[in-house]
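Entry for the shared binder. Reason: the reviewer on the internal report wants the predicted structure included alongside the sequence.
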Amino acid sequence: MGTSNSVRIDQQGLPGGLSNQAYVEQVGTANALGLVQAGNGNLATSSQNGNGNQADLTQQGQNNASALTQRGDNNRLTGVVAADRTELNISQNGSNNQVSSEIRESQRSYTINQYGNNNSLKQVESTIQATPGYTVEMRGSGINLTIEQGKVK
């Protein structure tokens, strides 16, 4: 609990097919979370409760799963998914929240939920292959949604 706390999680693959699990909860304002999943079979669950929090996510490798929840106003989440067979669940509950993500690989599933006013989602998908599926749900007023599919960088 508090203000301006920082957490960084780097999950690498383990020998023998073992995987990592991480659980983080941040409560307060202006907290920062950095999550990198670079190995295989990793799981991370994080929650930020408060205003003005920032979460940065990078998924690489295969068979990784992440769940990130932000509750409060003026929260930001930036993510890059550059991995196959991954699962990502993002939930923001509050106003003036932002998700900015880039999806670079196929064979992944994700869910993005935003509830509140003046929230925005900008997503660029650079893969041209069909995805297993994704869900985006935004509820509130003043919503800004941009999804670009098949955009090669």
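Summary line for the report: The mean pLDDT is 87.
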